[in-house]
Amino acid sequence: MSNNIDIFTPDDGNSIEIPLSGERVAAGFPSPAEEFTTQGLDLNRKLIKNPASTFYARVSGLSMVDEGINDGDLLVIDKSIEPYDGCLAVCFIDGEFTLKRFEKHDGYGLLVPANKEFKAIKVTADNDFCIWGIVTYLIKKV
User: Fold this and answer.
1) Which is deepest, 33, 106, 111, 141, by most CB within 10 Å?
2) Which CATH superfamily is domain 50-139 in?
């Protein structure tokens, strides 16, 4: 199982708009960009659809590195989203939080890591288990 995940609430008391360019940034061939911004972007409004049920968490561990999720990355988690097969979920199992892909199977669930060094966790009625929230965004420092 992975280490504990630090969970905290977003500060929605202040709105900070960051300038947003009207042009997209090409990830292929370069394109001319406008030299001015056309609008502002408030990341709280963009990333948080349900403020009362949204939390941030810092990833601890390496079980999801093959999906580009590394130790120290930030997750935006929405507890109001209904879990679905294949969702990236923060789960509480047998007293610990863990981040995994959730798969529904007949009679059990499977928490699937994205690192060959870790094994999938079979979840049955014998486990103290809940899907605590669904990851909606990943915030990384590059």
Assistant:
1) 111
2) Umud Fragment, subunit A (2.10.109.10)
For residue 100, indicate whether it is catalytic: yes
Amino acid at position 125, single letter = A
Cα–Cα distance, 97 to 49 (Å, whole number) = 23
Is 21 designated active site?
no
CA–CA separation, 20 vs 34, rounded Å? Answer: 11
Among candidate residues 21, 49, 53, 100, the one labeled active-site is 100
Amino acid found at 128: D
For residues 19 and 74, give the distance between their C-alpha atoms in angstroms, rounded to a whole number.
Answer: 22
**Percent of the chain having pLDDT more than 70?**
75
Cβ 2 vs Cβ 69: under 8 Å: no
Spell 20-45 as b/e; 16+ CB within 10 A means b: eeeeeeeeeeeeeeeeeeeeeeeebe
Task: For the chain, give every residue range classified as CATH 2.10.109.10.
Answer: 50-139
Rounded percentage of the chain residues whose pLDDT exceeds 90 = 58
The whole-angstrom separation of Cα 142 and Cα 31 is 23
